[in-house]
Write a structure and sequence with these properties.
heterodimer, A: about 160 residues, five-stranded mixed beta sheet, 11 strands, globular, B: alpha+beta, OB fold (Dihydrolipoamide Acetyltransferase, E2P), six-stranded mixed beta sheet
Chain lengths: ~160, ~170
């Protein structure tokens, strides 16, 4: 990883979620897929191939309470770079921005919590200048995201 | 000192030397005493690295109730412990955190008040009976000003957390 990794920052109200940009190969706007009826399902067909669909907002609200709702507009799909045979896509209604942080500002979780929370996809945190906590997720490799957290169909 | 006195003194300090509780020269034990609500706890002073007041606790998913979250100690995340949840199953907002001096982990214990450092004869510190529930997280206890003070075992606390996290 570079000394200043790129991350997507998503504002969840009382905290932020950081997604390492290097985990994703492509971003697709919901406007490109709005006619695809399957995209509300845990598995969807994305450009002709079946993928695991993870609704990030539901995943985050399951992990951490007090997520402020934001469901306007069309979702964005973050296509995960394939690490395994199965593809995965993260979908979110949140607006986001691409930022870089010095690597040393990201802190691993305390050793006693690292293994368990790592299984949930939470790998590091960053204390922002406003003393606001930012959680770095590796949702793509998290076994707990396999269900995609059922969400009502949006198409 | 007679051999019987030596034997008695050694017996009294048995089990405390491992974590540096006993002062073998004066046969006294020194403790850092702090409050969590109405409960009194003690640690060896050398186990406490720093006391920081007014830290915000950030929530974490999938942790047992006695871990309210993380605290930010000089930019490093520390696991916050709420001892009152462990001992009385009640939440206790922390006025300050004791940042522990550990090599392998970052741990901070929430407390409501830092009381004092006390020097006690080792013989006045008693260990727990095997069946005593408080003994799960404590090495010993002593009476101070008519109140029971529990000497925490940090390794036992961490073992409990490891077990609860699976």
């Amino acid at each position: 990883m570079a000394d200043t990794p790129e991350v997507f920052l998503l504002d969840y109200g009382r905290f932020d979620i950081l997604l390492p940009a290097g985990d994703f190969g492509e971003l697709i706007s919901g406007s490109e897929l709005k006619d695809l009826p399957e995209y509300g399902c845990p598995a969807c067909l994305l450009r002709g191939r079946e993928t695991r669909l993870v609704w990030l907002d539901n995943f985050v609200s399951h992990l951490l309470p007090a997520v402020e709702a934001e469901t306007s507009g069309l979702p964005t799909f973050f296509v995960v770079r394939e690490r395994r045979t199965e593809g995965a896509v993260l979908a979110t209604y949140r607006s986001f921005e691409l930022l870089t942080f010095p690597l040393h500002e990201l802190k691993l979780l305390p050793a006693g919590l690292r293994k368990r929370l790592g299984l949930l996809g939470l790998v590091a945190v960053r204390f922002s200048t406003a003393d606001r906590l930012q959680y770095l997720l590796d949702v793509s490799s998290s076994g707990s995201t396999a269900t995609g957290r059922d969400r009502e169909k949006t198409a | 000192m007679k051999s019987s006195e030596i034997k008695e003194a050694l017996s009294a300090s048995e089990g405390l030397e491992e974590i540096g509780l006993a002062d073998t020269e004066e046969l006294k034990s020194r403790f850092f005493v702090f409050s969590v609500g109405d409960l009194l706890f003690a640690l060896p002073p050398e186990a406490v690295h720093e006391i920081i007041a007014g830290l915000e606790v950030y929530p974490l998913p999938s942790c047992p109730p006695y871990i309210p979250g993380l605290v930010n100690c000089h930019g490093q995340p520390y696991t916050a412990f709420d001892l009152r949840v462990l001992f009385e199953n009640e939440r206790q907002p922390a006025a300050m955190f004791l940042v522990l001096k550990l090599e392998q982990d970052n741990v901070a214990i929430g407390c409501t008040e830092v009381n004092e450092i006390v020097d006690l004869p080792a013989s006045s510190v008693s260990t727990f009976a095997a069946a005593d529930a408080d003994g799960r997280f404590c090495l010993a206890m002593f009476d101070h000003g008519g109140q029971r003070v529990l000497v925490l075992s940090i390794p036992q606390l961490l073992a409990q957390l490891e077990q609860d996290l699976g």
